[in-house]
Predict the structure.
Amino acid sequence: MEQTNFQLKNQKTQSNDWSARLHHATRATREDWMGKGISYLCIGVIILVVASMLWFITSKGIATFTQNHVSLVKFLTGTNWAPDQGQIGALPMIVGSFAVTFAAAIVATPFAVGTAIFMTEISPNRGRKLLQPVIELLVGIPSVVYGFIGLAVVVPFMRHLVGGSGFGIISATFVLFVMVLPTITSMTVDSLRAVPRHFKEASLALGATRWQTVSRVILRSATPGILTAVIFGMARAFGEALAVQMVIGNAAIMPKNLISPASTLTSQLTTGIGDTIDGTLPNNALWSLALILLLMSLFFNALVRVIAKRGQLKHER
Amino acid sequence: MLKQYSFEDTAVQTFDDKTSLAMRTENLQVFYGTNHAMHDADLAFPKNQITALIGASGSGKSTYLRSLNRMNDGIATVTGKIWYHNVDINEPDVNIYEIRRHIGMVFQRPNPFAKSIRENIVYALRANGIKGKAELAERVEASLKGAALWDEVKDSLDKSALSLSGGQQQRLCIARSIAMEPDVLLLDEPCSALDPISTVKVEETLLKLQKKYTIIIVTHNMQQAARVSSQCAFFHLGHVMEYTSTGTMFSNPQIPVTQDYIAGSFG
């Protein structure tokens, strides 16, 4: 009797002990809380920064329409940019931005895809040893250097070739082409490398040539990745300010051809922002340009996501 | 610990002149860099029969198979002779694309392209210059029937090939290969990624196909080799140890290493 009592008692104390032992905090659990806390803090700060930037640019950007009562349609379609006289037609800059972006992407994509195919399919060894460092170097060159080379080499060359001042969309296109080439190339390389090896093997085993395999199987299955690469390149071109500003001529007029001075949203922002007073129409108008840039980059991002999702669906279906 | 067997003690059959052969290798060696993966393989494959290559993982059977239609080009160095219609197709000046049209291959993992069922077959045909709409349609139907897949997919030819089950995908890969009307069909463990029911279907397909094609199949499933093949070669550590009719291989293996492998002592 005594013994059983003791046993029961002992069992009880032990179970109590275990409950306490399994519920109390140790160093390990405290580390977990700390880690969680730090990550939440970081995320919180970043969300706050992004949200306040969005709010700031949006509120400043729409002041043109809410405070200065400029009509949105006039802003988007007007071709006369003279903010000190109350004329804020942003179309020349919008056209300029899109022109240089699309032109640069169209010129750069074939070169980028060709280089990427060389690096992954034709000569992977030389690609890795020789071309990879070159491309990484090109990504790292500051844009002011590109702009300077454009100013010193491309602009005089264009002046010599077609006359005029040499400043204009075509010079900007050339500089942007060199700038977006490494971006598009390295991302295309990644997407080509991600094509499952067995697709290539299957195609070769069917007697398809290397060229048929590359063009109909590898490029086909890497298409979403390549499109993403091109869009990233376009986003970079669209947002590039300094290098473009140095070679485009910065005339806020509708570009009549590819070799006359023009301007882009970014180049107009950088040239104009120092000359305006906070709260006035000229200043607000520049914020509106910034808002367009912001919306465009959101649009590019959304596009990338849509393409990624489509690509995924295609592979899963 | 794996027992040491003499690589000198081999039992490899040869065929007399009356047997018509689809292809034959002579002194075939394969090197991955400095790694000698295949030693002196002398095998002959009789026409319209299924030959199974068996052996443990790493015995060189897949390496050997991939050499037969030059899929090892750029991956490994292959020396020796591969005779096909009295031509040594291991010569560097041979057109590898033409070879692969005549010697088709199906891989371990079903690998259809991310295209429709129809496109998977048409791709190969187009790559080989066949363009007529009627002929393409005819070949698609014939090859799918040949691979015993037609009844299952005839109403959904435009569906993605990736929506098929693993076994169906593998039969599509077989269909894709036979659409080119090759002489020889190489299969590299075609059922190792499939469930038993799909495996049965693929095996039934192969047994039907041997009337038209010479089939060489790598498998590490001995029962499968026994079920489908009429000739059987046993590979061990990069050497062909024994090559006989399948019946002999499983009932009366000639040398100790084969006896032990068949008995399940290793592998």
In short: The mean pLDDT of chain A is 88.
